[in-house]
Task: inverse folding
């Protein structure tokens, strides 16, 4: 069960974690710790099991999530990166005058249900979370139940993989924000090619090492890739203009932003924001948009 009392955060310093404290929290992490060339403790970030063990420990240590079990084949989200999105969304909502009774729609929550876990633990948000994969849906539901979050997190199964909001967002739903980490790749071959390049950067042989973050095809791929998914999302958001204050999405490729801005103008968005999200040396972006006029925005936050 997630405690309402916020635990002391254990942060990395200059890309290093305090592994003594982490192992004390989760002894299973100890088997993956090794020394880097400078003699500092670390893990092999190209090893999916090591990455999963580290993130499981961070979730338990920092956010008191005691149950987070899912098959190794599923995408293992990096906790600091996912929390960065949550924090960014919190700032956006606060600037918009949305500070209480917040419900967030998590598009494609995955087997790990990570955004609802973090958003509920950090800010007490309620969540509606959708998922298209039946196995992932069942695993996420078990995570919700075993952390006693049934009253805060409502899972909805998306039967049609071509739909993003339609059929899971109801006409009477009132959502402060929608968030999404879209699939990056067009197909499995595209994903494997990208993974090969990433492993080369880590100095690993892609023939002997799998994706360090794991991930199933449904989690990573969408026909047409990220751009096609995003533009489908944009269109479907225009069908629910007054249901949600801020629609948002991570956008991995900067070149997609201009086409999103052009499409949103045609769809009638009243405001579009491109928000930088930094984590260490990595800089990514979140695009946020709303269809609400000034009066509707004020009434939404009332």
Result:
């Amino acid at each position: 069960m997630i405690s309402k009392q916020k635990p002391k955060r254990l942060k990395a310093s200059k890309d290093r974690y305090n592994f003594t404290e982490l192992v004390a929290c989760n002894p299973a992490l100890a088997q993956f710790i090794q020394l880097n060339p400078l003699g500092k403790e670390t893990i092999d970030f190209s090893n999916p099991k090591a990455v999963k063990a580290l993130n499981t420990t961070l979730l338990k240590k920092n956010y008191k999530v005691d149950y987070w079990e899912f098959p190794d084949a599923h995408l293992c989200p990096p906790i600091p990166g996912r929390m960065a999105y949550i924090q960014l969304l919190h700032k956006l909502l606060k600037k918009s005058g949305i500070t209480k009774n917040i419900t967030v729609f998590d598009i494609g929550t995955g087997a790990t249900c990570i955004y609802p876990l973090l958003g509920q633990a950090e800010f007490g948000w309620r969540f509606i979370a959708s998922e298209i994969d039946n196995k992932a849906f069942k695993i996420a539901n078990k995570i919700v139940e075993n952390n006693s979050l049934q009253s805060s997190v409502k899972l909805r199964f998306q039967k049609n993989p071509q739909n993003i909001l339609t059929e899971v967002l109801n006409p009477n739903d009132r959502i402060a924000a929608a968030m999404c980490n879209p699939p990056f790749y067009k197909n499995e071959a595209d994903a494997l090619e990208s993974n090969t390049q990433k492993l080369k950067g880590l100095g690993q042989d892609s023939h002997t090492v799998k994706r360090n973050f794991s991930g199933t095809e449904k989690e990573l791929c969408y026909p047409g890739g990220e751009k096609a998914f995003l533009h489908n999302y944009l269109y479907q958001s225009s069908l629910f203009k007054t249901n949600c204050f801020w629609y948002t999405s991570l956008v991995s490729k900067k070149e997609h932003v201009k086409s999103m801005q052009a499409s949103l103008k045609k769809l009638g968005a009243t405001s579009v924001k491109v928000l930088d999200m930094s984590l260490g040396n990595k800089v990514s972006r979140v695009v946020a948009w709303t269809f609400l006029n000034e009066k509707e925005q004020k009434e939404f936050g009332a």
About this structure: Confidence is low (pLDDT under 50) at residues 1-8, 10-14, 209-213. Residues 260 and 266 are 10 Å apart (CA to CA).
